Amino acid sequence: MSSKQTRLAMIGTRGHHGIVLRELAALPAVDLVAAASGGEGDSTAAITEWCGKNDRAPTMFDNWREMLDAVKPDAAVVCGPFELHAEMISAAMQRGIHVFAEKPCALTFDDLAAIRQCAEAHPAIHLAAMMQSRYDPGFYTAWRLIGEGAIGEVRLINARKAYKRGQRADYYRNRQTYGGTIPWVGSHAIDWMLWFAGVRPESVTAAQSRMHNGGIGTMESSAACLFRLAGERIGTVSIDVLRPENATTHGDDWIRAVGSAGVIEARPDRITLINAGNDGTLPVAVACDRKPFADFIQHIRGERNAIIGAPETINLTEALLLAQQSADEQREVYFPQQ
């Protein structure tokens, strides 16, 4: 595919479709050929506005299935209603279309099973969840250093993800269309934990609360998860939408990994490292030579291997759903053995 244009279609504008639009102008080998609403009150307005400013003229569709069948793109971006993610992902993969998808990719175990079945039936199709914070220089460099043995064997991980609640659309008010704060807000922190640990979880115990959620229906305002990981490793994740409105950033993103030979703490733009060669005061340069959507495109064009694909996307989604189940049922939940 690297010798020709990659034909791209976009479905919906909920969540982080802006990741794609911000990178498209710098990807001349990608041709945005079509876009469609995701339905259920979704809109293509943001895509139309971007196209007007960037001299793009994709064919616009009212129905995303008709778009996939008519256009037959090489790749699709899925940012429709959360409850339709799995249906959209599966439909695209069944048609041989690579998928860059907003998280969570599924809100139910049945939907996740359908995605897993598609991935097994179409192993050449690249599926990547929008885990854009993997590409933040701090997190990416911390992951790379851990892989190089900078802190020895990872034994304990603590992660935190917090957002400002702000004004939320109506679909955040209902679990059926939102999915829960653990899989929506917590997805990134749980992803960092799994990414840094590099092993499969064995069980999860989670708790959550809707108190002080600003009257936003059933939306949980805070949650915490304890993961038991293979090899007696431990991971904890703190999640909330209670970040004060006057905070200088929308999110509070942080992870700490304790190893057998050191400790590393990371934020999006910086790292603190303590090991045999650093007492924590020496600066650590951070960098990332990848971008989320470009990484996806370069992978399907055979130009490099992406840092997230179908296995990581499916394993993360499973962890999100099991953590949400644990919080809902107030019990420890075990991961299926593989």
How is this structure best described in words?
There is one protein chain. This protein has 338 residues and is α/β, with parallel strands linked by helices. It has eleven helices and 15 strands. The chain has helices spanning 17-24, 45-53, 64-71, 85-94, 109-121, 137-147, 175-178, 181-184, 187-197, 292-300, 310-329, and strands at 6-11, 30-36, 59-61, 75-78, 98-101, 127-129, 154-163, 201-209, 222-229, 233-240, 251-259, 262-267, 270-275, 278-279, 333-334. The strands form two sheets. The chain has a nine-stranded mixed β-sheet. It has a six-stranded parallel β-sheet with strand order 3-2-1-4-5-6, sandwiched between helices. A hairpin with a 3-residue loop joins strand 9 and strand 10 (233-240). Helix 4 runs parallel beside helix 5, helix 5 runs antiparallel to helix 11 (310-329) and helix 9 (187-197) crosses helix 11. The protein is globular. 47% of the residues are buried.
